[in-house]
Amino acid sequence: MSAAIVDPDLVRALDELRPVAVGLKMLEEQMLLPSVRENYKQFGYTSSRRDDAMNAIAGRAKALCMKPGSLRLAVELAADFHKRHGRRIGLDHLRRQVSAATLALKSASLQAQADKAAHDWRSEKAGLAVEAADGLADYLDQSRRDAAHG
Length: 150
Known about the structure:
Blueprint lengths: L7 H24 L2 H5 L1 H25 L3 H18 L5 H59 L1
């Protein structure tokens, strides 16, 4: 059995950034609303607040020698756990969640790549069919012209 994960700096960051992550998610949802997108001032304000939240996460990530996206994911998972269970997530539990999420994301990525390959193949096949139809139409048109002049 491996030793427990202990990182007081990360635990403190997860606690302190929880409200930032919750606010960030709400701001991003607001930015997608047509009413906000159409109001230049409101969109600018929301975008500025989002940038501030992203910068707070990025600054803490730099201090922890982490990528900002990695810290944001950790904070979001911790916030979700806290919301559901009313307590702080253990780092070992966080690691298990990350492993499960990674597996699901890899599976989704593989499926998306296979879907894209199938789409590309169908698109190429359709393109070849269009080329064949155009070629046949051109040939028949040329035959008509040759017969009319011949």
